[in-house]
Amino acid sequence: MEIYNIEGMIKVGIVGASGYTGLELIRILSKHPEIKISILTSERYANSSVSSIFPSLLGWVDMKYKDFLPEEIIDKSDLIFTALPHKKAMSIIPIFLKSGKRVIDMSADYRIKDPHIYERWYSNIHTSPELLNSAVYGLPEIYRAEIKSAKLVANPGCYPTSVILAMAPLIKTDLIYNDSIIVDSKSGISGAGRSPDLAFQFAECNENVRAYSISVHRHIPEIEQELSILSGEDIKVSFTPHLIPMTRGLLSTIYVNLREIPMEGYLLERYKEFYKYEPFVRLMEEGRSADTHNVTTSNYCDIGINVDVRTKRVVLTSAIDNLVKGASGQAVQNMNILYGFREDMGLECPGIFP
Question: How far is CA 170 from CA 182, 266, 274, in A?
Fold first, then answer.
């Protein structure tokens, strides 16, 4: 393990630390035994104490938010998490990398390898396309070896995490038709971020479930890119996300047509073999489906596998906490891999139930 300061701890800075993903990073890292949070930035709350904005951290984090000053962040950090909106991260990450710092980016700015595809889906010119090929997609279950030596980790989106993990063992087989994948996903309201918006107010969301961004959601190219890499052929998916009236949690239900009906138990055994060394993937037994309640506040992804013999389909369910395995927990998992820590360090907890 590399040692960066006299205390023997890795100094971590978080840029954009007052949104939900930034808050979740602070919560997880505040109890990490090998990490020292060295600087937190927030444009909105600069010079305010963290615990005055988030009283849940009272007694855990005695720091004030700072203005964004790249030189100060570089000086105080070994590793930098960027928890900024899409399009903003790419303006500062090259500065951090040029200074020799490692970066884990929570935005979508470095997830898509083709800058033209990024520009089409995000309606923005990519200002540092030269970094796209060296950025490692931060899904540990697939890219662990590449993450170990990465300078820039592109932390995956929440929906793609749930879908790719559910599909990875299956997409490599000849059991399915790859041209008819349908994904129906539902996420809690925290997935929309912390900025005020009428669409996410209580009266708009309570007792209401609605689909949004049908066929045009920005996570589609990310899902298709990674499934295409895994399968070795061009994959297209029909993806429909839904907003549901709960704070956190994400469930994806995935429908895939089968070429043939496998023997009973075959798919479950294949998944168990594929994920046998993965600490954060849990497989449901035959006949059970995944649900969000059992992964709340944890870094687990629960996967259920059900074969519908009548329609000749496999129906997959994949549940994560959108703020943990879908964002900040996975980022910490990536950090642990980068520095050779035990992969579950700082993340060792079951979901909260009920």
Answer: 14, 11, 10
pLDDT along the chain (354 residues), means of 10: 54 96 96 97 95 94 95 97 94 97 98 97 96 97 98 98 98 92 95 76 87 96 98 97 96 97 94 97 94 97 97 98 98 98 94 83
Q: Answer yes or no: is 337 within a domain.
A: no
Peptide bond preceding 354 in cis form (omega within 30 of 0):
yes
Secondary element (H or E) of residue 292 = none
Same domain? For 174 and 304 the reply is yes
Give residue 348's Cα distance to chain centre.
Answer: 17
Answer whether 50's CB lies under 8 Å from 61's CB. Answer: yes
Q: What is the pTM of this model?
A: 0.95
Count of structural domains, the chain? 2
Q: Which domain holds residue 57?
A: 10-134
Domain co-membership, 165 together with 262: yes
What CATH number is given to the structural domain containing 287? 3.30.360.10
Q: What is the SS3 assignment for 3?
A: coil
Q: Is 301 a catalytic residue?
A: no
Q: Where are the beta strands (DSSP E) in the chain?
A: 10-15, 35-41, 79-82, 102-105, 136-137, 152-154, 181-187, 210-211, 237-243, 250-257, 281-283, 301-308, 313-320
Stated as kind and residue range, the H or E segment containing 199 is none
Q: Assess if residue 56 is contained within a domain.
A: yes
What DSSP element (H or E) covers 21? helix 20-29
In a domain, 351, yes or no: no
